[in-house]
């Protein structure tokens, strides 16, 4: 019962002990309590009860009973970090047991050996146990043994064998009532899905396992460890670190297993390193190394040493000793057959290169490069990164580019298995090194056109195809509706100065549920095979339009000026200085959005001039007087480009990539030319431009007051030619896909827009912060505007800073006047700025808005 209904089993066992049982029955009861405490409670109590069970079994003169207890005690001792004592108890159990019981003891010894990282010995034990358990028709223990054998196969990288064992075990579990074991099987299938590269399926199965464990009321430390691994692969390292640290705190609070604590510390160290917290990673990894060493778990200790070295390198350390230590770790990992061995060889080679040790670097990189031909996507990418570094060390620019191309092709295929735009964006971080190597090789070649190709190769790739549409599942729709209701109630309470902690907790819970269901989506497209072609871009630009793509190499901005049949390169300033200046500009625009801040105008204009020097440099003198498209890196999308002097009075549009600008330029407007005007609640002006626009567009659909509810708004927006939304905007830096526009019944979020079959061809968002984004992955953006671009929207006008509601009205009226005369969004916005009064308030309002895309 202890793995079917754990808490019921605990109560029954305590009841047995209250009834003055025989030594045999008391031994069983103490063993049940010991197992419960071992897996979900206090290890000190677990060892007390299991030793008592062992002594009672000896008094009962039952060799098989004693063998069974010794097996449970041995596992507990191993989990407590007393490895030698635990293995000794398991040896005695194997010696005391016979037949069926001995097979069960062998299974437990195999499990202990798996925990210790002795994988081949674990396989030997479990292979001996399975035939005996099958012959005895012991369904539960056979299923456990198959599940364990599958898990060991995964640790050794043999995914196909693991899948076969998991399938066989699942068929057996379906015939039993072992609810905890069933949950464990679902969790193990999640691990198998992850090992085969299917992150959405892994997340879905781990969430399902967590729901099953929750019904049983048992902690889930192994699940925490596995979810951390999947979250890290998905680019969600900060979340993995938070989950690992929280689980460690719970484990410490109950006095739980020392082995699980060490594994959680290792997960936390990996997550901290990936999240850029090198010193936190060093602290966690060092503790993990010490615990694993004390537990005599060499396989685990070696993995922890690898993470410790990676963290030290990330903190800026480099030495010959580190090369030797990393090479030793790589050798040990290869001996264990661990999939992480190529990663360690790559690291050894990379450190050797920084020291100028060319021969040592070539030796280690050659070993790492072997993994490029087979294995899961991230292992193959490790191999191609090693091959690229080998080519660079040999002076072969062509070899660098070929290795980078092959590696990024692997990652492209992997990304397209992900349905959620967030996961696609974050997955690009895995290719950042390859993209940087290729860009540097292109720069060294002296070819601006080649640098443009590689700048585009890994820029805003999450926008290249639409995310998978969320299914019309009742659970997801219900969660979105409940989220909207709770968010609206919380907003009302805040406006009335009432406390909202309970509502905020429920809102966060619903956000987690929605996000979780979205991350489960698997990509439904293999990609369109699109490759960026500079010639096609130059043809579309013609002789009048210039496109300025900003690439960043070694922290410096490189401006690639495309147009008039050629690509030219100009070197501008440092990215870090430009980011700092952009923050000053944002602060100035926030001040200018309020009356009485006129004195700030010269300061903001001066900052705009400095930004131009840093971002465009000498390229500013070559812009001519025609339209300009700016393609900034993700970290510069907060720049109000219209503030730069050379861009201030011209037709200007912004795009996340040249490829997305091309797609927007080639997008055809929908038939019918339907206009939709939406007015949300709570605006200072009441959305005063909307009634005027309703008169201008006689047949427009107008949604306001009670009609401006999210389901109706989405219905009308789908396939519209032009949409104008006057509503409060909220940007969520912590969760950009919950950035929202406030409607009558609550917020409309990015997840809602992703359900549209086709978003409006042109959309104008006359509210604050709608053009703000979160920079994630290698060079990706998440936010409201970027959610619209892959879904059929060719042009957006939105604000990247807070604006004055009253000053927005004349800007919007002038914008629509010029649109109705046949101008593009960028042309209309340029003319609308010029038509505003010349005071600081209106000028700042005009600068805050940008035209995105090409419509």
Helices and strands in order:
Layout: H1 6-18, H2 23-40, H3 43-59, H4 63-79, H5 83-96, H6 99-116, H7 119-135, H8 139-155, H9 159-173, H10 179-195, H11 199-216, H12 221-233, H13 237-254, H14 258-274, H15 278-294, H16 298-314, H17 320-336, H18 341-355, H19 358-369, H20 377-393, H21 397-415, H22 421-427, H23 432-445, H24 448-457, H25 474-495, H26 501-519, H27 534-541, E1 546-553, E2 556-563, E3 566-574, H28 575-592, H29 601-615, E4 628-631, E5 652-654, H30 658-666, E6 675-679, H31 689-696, E7 701-704, H32 710-717, E8 722-726, E9 729-730, E10 740-743, E11 746-749, H33 750-753, E12 762-765, E13 774-776, E14 780-782, H34 784-788, E15 795-799, H35 805-819, H36 825-835, H37 840-848, E16 849-853
Parallel strand pairs: 1-4, 4-5, 6-7, 6-8, 8-12, 12-15
Antiparallel strand pairs: 1-2, 2-3, 9-10, 10-11, 13-14, 15-16
Structure description:
The radius of gyration is 31 Å and the shape is globular. With 855 residues, the chain is an alpha/beta fold. Helix 20 (377-393) packs antiparallel against helix 21 and helix 20 packs parallel to helix 23 (432-445). It has a six-stranded mixed beta sheet, with helices on both faces. Strands 3-2-1-4-5 form a five-stranded mixed beta sheet. A three-stranded antiparallel beta sheet has the order 9-10-11. A hairpin with a 2-residue loop joins strand 10 and strand 11 (746-749). It folds into six domains: 1-97, Serine Threonine Protein Phosphatase 5, Tetratricopeptide repeat; 112-215, Alpha Horseshoe (Serine Threonine Protein Phosphatase 5, Tetratricopeptide repeat), CATH 1.25.40.10; 219-295, no CATH class; 474-520; 541-653, Nucleotidyltransferase, domain 5 (2-Layer Sandwich), CATH 3.30.420; 662-853, 3-Layer(aba) Sandwich (Rossmann fold), CATH 3.40.50.
């Amino acid at each position: 019962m202890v793995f079917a209904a754990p808490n019921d089993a605990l109560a029954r066992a305590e009841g047995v002990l209250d009834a003055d049982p025989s030594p045999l029955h008391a031994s069983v009861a103490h063993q049940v309590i010991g197992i419960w405490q071992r897996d979900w409670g206090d290890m000190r109590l677990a060892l007390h009860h299991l030793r008592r069970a062992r002594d009672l079994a000896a008094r009962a003169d039952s060799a098989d009973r004693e063998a069974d207890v010794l097996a449970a005690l041995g596992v507990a001792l191993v989990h407590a970090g007393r490895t030698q004592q635990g293995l000794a108890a398991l040896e005695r159990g194997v010696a005391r047991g016979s037949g069926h019981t001995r097979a069960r003891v062998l299974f437990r010894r195999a499990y202990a050996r798996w925990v210790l990282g002795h994988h081949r010995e674990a396989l030997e034990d479990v292979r001996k146990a399975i035939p005996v358990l099958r012959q005895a028709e012991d369904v539960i223990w056979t299923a456990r043994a198959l599940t364990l054998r599958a898990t060991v196969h995964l640790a050794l990288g043999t995914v196909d064998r693991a899948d076969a064992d998991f399938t066989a075990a699942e068929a057996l579990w379906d015939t039993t009532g072992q609810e905890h074991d069933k949950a464990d099987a679902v969790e193990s299938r999640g691990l198998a899905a992850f090992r085969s590269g299917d992150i959405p399926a892994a997340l879905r199965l781990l969430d399902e396992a967590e729901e099953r464990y929750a019904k049983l009321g048992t902690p889930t430390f192994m699940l925490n460890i596995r979810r951390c691994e999947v979250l890290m692969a998905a680019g969600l390292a900060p979340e993995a670190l938070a989950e690992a640290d929280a689980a460690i705190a719970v484990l410490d609070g109950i006095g739980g297993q020392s082995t699980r604590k060490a594994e959680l510390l290792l997960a936390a160290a990996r997550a901290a390193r990936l999240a850029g917290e090198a010193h936190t990673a060093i602290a966690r990894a060092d503790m993990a190394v010490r615990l694993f060493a004390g537990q005599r778990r060499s396989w685990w200790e070696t993995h922890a040493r690898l993470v410790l070295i990676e963290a030290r390198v990330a903190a800026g350390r480099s030495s010959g000793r580190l090369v030797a230590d990393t090479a030793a770790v790589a050798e040990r990992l290869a001996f264990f057959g661990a999939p992480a061995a190529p990663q360690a060889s790559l690291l050894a080679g990379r450190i050797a290169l920084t020291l100028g040790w060319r021969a040592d670097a070539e030796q280690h990189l050659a070993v790492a490069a072997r993994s490029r031909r087979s294995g899961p996507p991230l292992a193959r990418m490790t191999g191609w990164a090693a091959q690229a570094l080998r080519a660079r060390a040999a002076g072969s620019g062509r070899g660098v580019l070929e290795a980078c191309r092959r590696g990024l092709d692997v990652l492209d295929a992997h990304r397209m298995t992900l349905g959620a735009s967030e996961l696609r964006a974050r997955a690009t971080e895995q290719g950042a090194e390859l993209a940087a190597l290729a860009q540097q090789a292109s720069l060294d070649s002296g070819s601006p056109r080649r640098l443009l190709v590689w700048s585009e190769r890994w820029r805003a790739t999450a926008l290249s195809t639409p995310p998978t549409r969320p299914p019309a599942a009742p659970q997801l729709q219900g969660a979105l509706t409940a989220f909207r209701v709770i968010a609206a109630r919380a907003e009302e309470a805040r406006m009335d100065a009432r406390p909202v902690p309970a509502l905020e907790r429920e809102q966060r819970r619903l956000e987690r549920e929605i996000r979780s269901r979205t991350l489960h989506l698997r990509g439904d497209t293999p990609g369109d095979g699109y490759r960026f072609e500079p010639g096609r871009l130059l043809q579309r630009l013609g002789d009048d339009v210039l496109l300025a793509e900003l690439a960043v190499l070694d922290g410096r901005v490189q401006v690639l000026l495309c147009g008039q049949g050629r690509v030219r390169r100009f070197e501008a300033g440092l990215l870090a200085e430009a980011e700092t200046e952009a923050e000053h500009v944002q602060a100035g625009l926030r001040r200018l959005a309020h009356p009485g801040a006129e004195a700030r105008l010269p300061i903001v204009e001066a900052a705009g001039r400095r930004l131009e020097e840093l971002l465009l440099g000498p390229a500013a003198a070559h812009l001519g007087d025609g339209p300009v498209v700016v393609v900034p890196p993700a970290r510069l999308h907060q720049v109000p480009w219209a503030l730069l002097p050379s861009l201030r009075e011209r037709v200007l549009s912004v795009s996340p990539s040249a490829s997305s600008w091309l797609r927007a330029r080639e997008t055809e407007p929908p038939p019918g030319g339907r206009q939709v005007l939406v007015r949300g609640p709570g605006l200072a002006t009441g959305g005063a431009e909307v009634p005027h626009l309703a008169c201008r567009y006689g047949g427009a659909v107008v949604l306001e007051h009670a009609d401006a509810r999210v389901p109706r708004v989405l219905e009308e927006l789908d396939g519209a030619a032009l949409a104008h939304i006057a509503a409060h905007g909220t940007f969520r830096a912590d969760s950009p896909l919950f950035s929202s526009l406030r409607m009558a019944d609550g917020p409309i979020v990015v997840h809602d827009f992703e359900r549209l079959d086709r978003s409006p061809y042109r959309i104008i968002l006359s509210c604050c912060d709608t053009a703000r984004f979160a920079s994630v992955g290698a060079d990706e953006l998440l936010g409201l505007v970027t959610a619209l671009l892959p879904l059929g929207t060719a042009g957006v006008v939105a604000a990247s800073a807070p604006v004055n509601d009253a000053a927005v009205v004349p800007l919007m009226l002038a914008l629509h006047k010029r649109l109705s005369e046949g101008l593009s969004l960028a042309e209309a916005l340029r003319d609308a700025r010029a038509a505003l009064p010349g005071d600081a308030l209106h000028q700042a309002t005009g600068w805050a808005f940008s035209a995105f895309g090409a419509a």
